[in-house]
Design goal:
By secondary structure, the protein is of the alpha/beta class. Helix content is 32%, strand content 25%. Bound molecules: cytidine-5'-triphosphate.
Length: 394
């Protein structure tokens, strides 16, 4: 199931640390590569030899044990697909929330940008403490998956919530993150990406700043969910799925028309030029001391045209980039274009959208319900968009 996946297991000082030996064994049995990082206290509960034998790798404990050219906490993050912290103590959860880096595990977490799953484990009163609960909520909002502790007999002698979740439950959560359910298996999904370029003459064009990152992230994630993906893109992308390279809005229109016919979904993430040059010059235009007037004519609105011809079982998704009145304009746009969903983002914010690696979006459906995706990297945002439009949103 997990062949070739690189899992980093973080263990903190809690009695349930011994149970994580079984979790490591399960990961290994399913062909994952496992590395382990522990807090110094964790070794009071489980031995280094046990962890090394099970993971078949040296255990990482010391923050300044620099074996190679990179500091340990950076080296550990490099090839890791998922970081699983189990058991996660109240103390470590607090440090994760506030970015404290006082040991190798917390420093590694701070430097890690991909998926994180935590399985808290602590005394019931500690779990119910508002500080712990608020920290958990903050971590969840930042995209960290939490495997809730279970209720039962605790090592401290009381019966209550706080016991580490069953190893199987933690394993399944990690597996779901690494190998998502194939909800798009057998479905054809057409996605556009990048900004179109409209030629003025042999060397010049009218373009825009779209990097294509959002469209490509959507295509990557649709592929992971099992779809037959067709990416129609103005930017080059070397992918396992089919990529059709286009440049102008007209070329994109022709490619979309052809591919949409038997598709399940069309996602128009591209920034399509509304206009093209009426009389583009085959030769380079020379300056002659006068002003140059270029006449522009309207391009077809691909999203609107496809929404008109779409069948009931097809889903059409548009994007809308606005610099003001985001939700109001987005709601007007979904009505005007006739699509099923609009993903709206605010381009006045410099840290999201266009060339940035991050995005913050609002997804609006035909009933004008709004779903907010908080600022996150474009790959995670893409997965959330797909989960949302296919009704799998949590
Ligand atoms: N779009 C399209 N064809 C066009 C222009 C836009 O398919 N000729 C699609 C985009 O891919 C996007 C959506 O329409 O999914 C919204 O694009 P946007 O530029 O925000 O909207 P416009 O219709 O161009 O409206 P305006 O520029 O007036 O805001």
């Amino acid at each position: 199931m997990l062949t070739g996946k690189n899992i980093l297991v973080g263990i903190t000082g809690a009695i349930a640390a011994y149970k994580v030996c079984e979790l490591i064994r399960l990961f290994k049995k399913n062909n994952a590569n496992v590395k382990v990082v522990v807090t110094p206290n964790a070794l009071n509960f489980v031995t280094k030899t046990t962890l090394e034998s099970l993971s078949q790798n040296p255990i990482n404990i010391e923050q300044f044990d620099i074996k190679e050219y990179k500091p340990e906490h950076i080296a550990l993050t490099d090839e890791t697909d998922i970081f699983v912290i189990a058991p996660a103590s109240a103390n470590t959860i607090a440090k994760m929330t506030f970015g404290i880096c006082d040991n190798l595990l917390t420093s590694t977490f701070c430097a890690y940008k991909k998926q994180v799953v935590i399985a808290p484990c602590m005394n019931t009163n500690m779990w119910e403490n508002p500080a712990v609960q608020e920290n958990i909520e903050i971590l969840k909002k930042r995209g960290i998956k939490v495997v809730e502790p279970e209720t039962g007999f605790l090592a401290c002698g009381i019966n209550g919530k706080g016991r580490l979740a069953e190893v199987e439950t933690i394993y399944n959560k990690v597996k779901d993150c690494l190998v998502p359910e194939q909800i798009l298996k057998g479905k054809k999904v057409v996605i556009t990406a990048g900004g179109t370029k409209e030629n003025i003459d042999a060397v010049r064009y009218i373009g825009n700043y779209s990097s294509g990152k959002m469209g490509i992230a959507l295509a990557d994630n649709a592929y992971k969910l099992g779809a037959e993906v067709i990416l129609i893109s103005t930017v080059d992308a070397d992918k396992k799925y089919k990529v059709i390279n286009v440049q102008t809005a007209q070329e994109m229109y022709e490619a979309v028309k052809q591919e949409f016919e038997n598709a399940y979904t069309l996602i128009m993430a591209a920034a399509v030029s509304d206009y093209r040059v009426k009389n583009k010059s085959e030769q380079k235009i020379k300056k002659d001391g006068n002003s140059l007037i270029i006449e522009l004519i309207e391009n077809p609105d691909i999203l609107q045209e496809m929404s008109k011809i779409k069948r009931d079982n097809q889903v059409v998704v548009g994007f809308c980039a606005e610099s003001q009145n985001l939700l109001e304009f987005a709601k007007q746009k979904i009505a005007k274009k006739g699509c099923d969903f609009i993903c709206a983002n605010d381009i006045s914010k410099k840290d999201i959208g266009f060339s940035s690696n991050d995005n913050e979006l609002y997804i609006i459906n035909k009933e004008l319900d709004v779903y907010h995706i908080e600022k996150t990297d474009k790959q995670s945002a893409a997965l959330k968009i797909l989960e949302n439009i296919y009704g799998k949103c949590k």
